[in-house]
Write a structure and sequence with these properties.
Elements (H helix, E strand, L loop, with lengths): L1 H8 L2 E2 L8 E3 L7 E3 L6 E2 L26 H4 L6 H17 L11 H10 L3 H8 L7 H11 L9 H14 L22 H24 L9 H13 L5 H10 L1
Antiparallel strand pairs: 1-4, 2-3
Helix pairs in contact: 3-6, 6-7
EC number: 2.7.11.1
Keywords: Kinase, Transferase
Organism: Eurystomus gularis
Length: about 250
């Protein structure tokens, strides 16, 4: 959000916010950089904001799952579009799901789904089907929805909403990035990943139970040192002489 405010203050919008365009500093991993300005646009040259105009030739610019409704309609990007894109990203990061992600090859379907989800309650219900929904993200999206095309966002208001979200989960705004996975009530990771983990756990339990029934011992993996030693012996063992190899083949 701070980066977007800085870019916007210099009369540009980014237009393609997503996880792969956020890089971390090598020396300071808590420092985030927003990269890839291939879709950046000067929305307010010489202080004059571009007018709202739909252009079919520009429809669906950006990364389809995150791009703004304006971009789907072919409107040149503005500040509200960047904040909308950031909102979709945050929802995806938290829930692992977006309502239109199963049909990304149909841009019109994605556009219509986003328009339908301008009813923020619908968006939140589909992304967070349980009772435990991040209210602050809903407030953020509601505030983005109220922005007019040329309106300058009050970035501090958006910051305060997100800070309330951190406070609600007992976190501090200390600038430290935490990429650990957590399941907070109904805020869960991707359902497909969860199913895979459950299936793997069930398979392990089934295997252990079968071994107990048959009395077969559970095979343990050899220590890493033994494995390395075995590989070393194999690599350093002298190759059989040509004559010996020939004799073996004849005997077979």
């Amino acid at each position: 959000l701070d980066i977007l405010e800085y870019v916007h203050e210099h009369e540009y919008v980014h237009g393609d916010i997503k996880a792969s365009n956020l890089l971390l500093s090598y020396k300071n991993p808590n420092q985030v950089y927003l990269v890839d300005y291939g879709l950046a646009y000067r929305y307010c040259p010489e202080g004059v904001h571009k007018v709202y105009k739909e252009d079919p030739k520009r429809c669906h610019d950006g990364t389809i799952e995150y791009t703004s409704i304006d971009a789907h309609k072919g409107v040149v990007p503005s500040r509200r579009g960047d904040l909308e894109i950031l909102g979709y990203c945050m929802i995806h990061w938290l829930s692992g799901h977006l309502p239109w992600e199963d049909n990304l090859k149909d841009p019109n379907f994605v556009r219509d789904s986003k328009i339908r989800c301008r009813d923020i309650s619908v968006l939140m219900d589909e992304c967070f089907p349980g009772k435990n929904k991040p209210d602050e993200i809903a407030k953020y999206m509601e505030k983005v929805k109220l922005l007019s095309y040329e309106e300058k966002p009050v970035y501090q208001h958006f910051r305060e909403i997100l800070l309330q979200g951190l406070k609600a989960i007992g976190q501090k705004d200390d600038g430290v990035l935490d990429f650990g996975l957590s399941e907070n009530g109904d805020l869960q990771t991707n359902p497909m990943q969860k199913k895979k983990r459950k299936a793997a756990a069930a398979a392990n339990e089934s295997t252990e139970a079968e071994m107990e029934d048959t009395g077969s011992p559970v095979k343990k993996k050899p220590p890493a040192s033994d494995t390395v030693a075995a590989k070393t012996r194999k690599m350093t063992s002298p190759k059989p002489r040509k004559g010996m190899a020939t004799r073996k083949r004849v005997q077979k």
